[in-house]
Amino acid sequence: MFSRLKEDIACIFERDPAARNTFEILTSYPGLHAVVIHRLTHRLWQARFFWLARIISHLTRWVTGVEIHPGAVIGRRFFIDHGMGVVIGETAVIGEDCTLYHGVTLGGTSWEAGKRHPTLGSNVVIGAGAKVLGPIEIGDGARVGSNAVVVKPVPAGATAIGVPGRLVEAGDHGDDARRKEMASKMGFDAYGATQDAPDPVANAINCMLDHIHVMDKRMQSMCEAIKQVSGEQLDTELPSLDSCEIASTAEELNKMDQKSETDPD
């Protein structure tokens, strides 16, 4: 028991930079209190003292704000940061070295008996407010973003974000290089946007650059065909944009806006 407690305290020092000393952790971390008491209630549940296990779990929720069903199976070095609002269902299984933040729910999607809650592998991190629902598996080392709602399995090492949860996959580096080249040709800064960025603006910029790339290739092909037929030399290179001219134009527009605000006529 004490060896498990030492592991719990050590993992809190590793994952929470706000932790200062052991006494502070033992007295002011509700996530630790909930996990320690769950070990007791889980043993009672396994011994078929169901009511006693549930009543102790209920009192623990009232004190810590963390609700862990006594039937849930939790591995070693499990850390609940902040704790408030965490709900872990009866048939949930959590591997080793997992971390949950406040507001996380490991819930079910069915009233039928049997396995109805998620299974988390080892080294899984679930962000604040996320909901992982149903008898799905979250692979080792996976991440679930804050406020995500995940109802489908997440492979090992992957990241799920959004509502409903979707996987963020590594982008094609060849596409990224091509987009940077096209953006440079246009005199445009693509913000270093990549395909795996969850930002919708970045995704829109990537789609625009892909579209321009296709149009540019078609235009070059047309110019080559015209050159072969007519013999005329065509310049198909796009002119680069002068940042100084852009800056001066923006300054002029700003002056016009200020003038219009001060002069009602």
Layout of secondary structure:
Blueprint: H1 2-15, H2 22-28, H3 30-46, H4 50-64, E1 67-68, E2 73-74, E3 79-80, E4 87-88, E5 93-94, E6 99-100, E7 105-107, E8 119-120, E9 125-126, E10 131-133, E11 137-138, E12 143-144, E13 149-150, E14 159-161, E15 166-168, H5 173-185, H6 200-230, H7 243-262
Parallel strand pairs: 1-4, 2-5, 3-6, 4-7, 5-8, 6-9, 7-10, 8-11, 9-12, 10-13, 12-14
Antiparallel strand pairs: 14-15
Helix pairs in contact: 3-4, 5-6
Written description of the protein model:
The structure is a single chain. With 265 residues, the protein is an alpha/beta fold. It folds into two domains: 2-168, UDP N-Acetylglucosamine Acyltransferase, domain 1 (3 Solenoid); 173-262, no CATH class. Helix content is 44%, strand content 13%. The chain is built from seven helices and 15 strands. The chain has a six-stranded mixed beta sheet with strand order 3-6-9-12-14-15. A hairpin with a 4-residue loop joins strand 14 and strand 15. Helix 5 (173-185) crosses helix 6. The termini are far apart. Mean pLDDT is 80; it is low at 186-195.
